[in-house]
Amino acid sequence: MLDARRLLLDSFEAAVAAADPLCVLGAALPSAEQIGRFARTRVVGAGKAAASMAMAVERRWPSDAPLDGLVVTRYAHGLPCRRIEVVEAGHPVPDEAGERAAQRMLGLVGELGENDLLVALLSGGGSSLLSLPVAEVPIDDLKKVTRALLASGAPIQDINVVRKHLSRIQGGRLAQATRARVLLRMISDVAGDDPSSIASGPCSPDPSRYADAIAVLERWRVDAPASVRAWLQRGARGEAPETPKPGDAAFDRVDSRIVATPHVSLEAAAAVFERAGVRPVILGDTITGEARDVAQVIGAIAREIARHGQPFARPVALLSGGECTVTIRGGGTGGRCTEFLLALALELRGIDDAWAIAADTDGIDGFGENAGALLAPDTLARSAAAGLDARARLDDNDAGGFFGALGDLLITGPTRTNVNDYRALLLLRGDAREAQA
Question: Any bridge partners for residue 360, and if so which?
Fold first, then answer.
């Protein structure tokens, strides 16, 4: 008998496990012989996976080889590393703890020489955690523009264009600040796995310019603080140095590799469905846009399958990844995974054998403490019986509250990795559905 709920949870767990730094990072680190060629090794890093990545380095590193460093991760995401200091800071809005950690990090990399090795560990969330604004922009103003960008519906790539041009450490400036060889290892949470967008690319060339950052604020109608606008306009006039671009000599010393990606995690989830006798279809790992718009498209595919058996026969699981956005217009806090799922529930009316999960692989859906939620064939019936108006909750951007009231939120705690959102829509045959009743 097929347990649809368990199958969805197992697929999500497989997706997360495929991006576990303790499993995937070791093979991408130097051998003991290579390590011995450097006078010393210093580790820096930022992101929700930073502590786990640091622990993976410690486990791999020879006990007699010099190793120290500093990484910054989200509050409650730390781990007890022995040789690498772990600092916790604010996410998704930066705070003073992250600013202090980034300032220290910049000093630490500047101490290294040509015979040293810098290991840079970056993952999703690093843009907020590694916040070191230029002197002309106070941290409080960086917080304000970050909140406004997050609420505007702007995609993460656009948000990071602004961040890089307000930063002393992002947009390639960390690599520019050291003379050491740089071993850059990343866990990707961005569409297309673009290194310049992962944690706002501290060790990667930045193709964007100050004018692009100004255009982002205008495009998304962001009311930025005066200090932010003044700095960006100054840069656009050529009165402040640009971020280092492709071809800059600083990047000749950087060995860059991505060790975990959204697509590999989708493939791991697909294998779970295959073993259960369900055909998995990976729609893509770069599906972005407003969460409710993405739900409308995937719901349309589901209706075609349910009514016409095209383009796939049931049972089938439609898998997708990518970071949706939520433009906050109501009183709720957004949660792109739960908003996607509630919008999908409304799109799937009349399809009584549909199950779904939408969850962020880092365990945090936006500002909430849940990873996402699960959708069952009876979700809307149960919500109506409980007096919950699904459409009104969606319009209020309160999908998290909706699924919380039904007991269908997915609570994982910190996973200490991040390969973006995971979505799976499971369409069963009638006999499989009846087994659930």
Answer: 421
β-bridge pairing 85-89 and 289-290: unpaired
What DSSP string describes 417-428? ----EEEEEEE-
Helix, strand, or coil here: 105?
helix
pTM: 0.92
* CA–CA separation, 358 and 337 (whole Å): 5
Lookup: tokens for 121: 């560990």
- Ranges of the chain whose pLDDT falls below 50: 431-437
Cβ 169 vs Cβ 130: under 8 Å: yes
314 and 251 in a single domain? The answer is no
Measured CA to CA, the distance from residue 30 to residue 184 in angstroms comes to 12
Return the beta strands (E) in 135-201 as ranges.
181-187
DSSP 330: S
Q: Reduced to 3 states, what is the DSSP secondary structure of residue 167?
A: strand
- CB contact at 8 A, 73 and 47: yes
Number of structural domains (the chain) is: 2
Query: Is residue 281 within a helix (H) or strand (E), and if so which, with residue range?
Result: strand 279-284
| pLDDT at position 433 | 40
Range of the domain at 288: 262-436
Looking at the fold, whether 177 and 196 belong to one and the same domain comes out as yes
Residues 6+ apart with CB under 8 A from 408: 373, 374, 375, 376, 379
Instruction: Report d(CA 347, CA 299) in Å as an integer.
Output: 5
**How many other CB atoms are found less than 10 A from the CB of residue 356?**
28
Residue 55 located in a structural domain: yes
Give me the phi and psi of 431, to 5 degrees please: -70, -35
At 191, give phi and psi (nearest 5°): -60, 130
Question: What pLDDT does 432 receive?
Answer: 39
The 3-state DSSP class for residue 215 equals helix
94 & 199 share domain: yes
Closest CA to 174 of 142, 198, 210, 155: 198
Q: Are the CB atoms for 305 and 314 separated by under 8 Å?
A: yes
The CATH code of the domain that includes 399 is 3.40.1480.10
Given phi > 0 = left and psi -120 to 50 = alpha, else beta, which region is 174? Answer: alpha
Write out pLDDT tens, residues 36-81: 999 999 999 999 999 999 999 999 999 999 999 999 999 999 999 9
Is 317 among the domain residues? yes
pLDDT value of residue 431: 43
